[in-house]
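Entry for the shared binder. Reason: the reviewer on the internal report wants the predicted structure included alongside the sequence.
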Amino acid sequence: MYLGKKEHNPPHFHAYYQDCKGIFNINSCEMSEGNLSKKQIKLIEAWAELHQEELLANWELAQNGEIPYKIEPLR
């Protein structure tokens, strides 16, 4: 997530894997744009569903210029 009020809606986060990137909508937990593989997309979408409430809380913090909390990574 990027910090600051300049970040646009809808709530989303950026995911990177090697040279690939994806932007994921927090409300739907789906990739809205990017070039990640299907395998990576499935893993990230599953992780986002598990942590959706935390992601939304962090989005609010980031919109206010505050540092988001760390969220448990995918294992």
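Summary line for the report: The longest strand covers residues 12-17.
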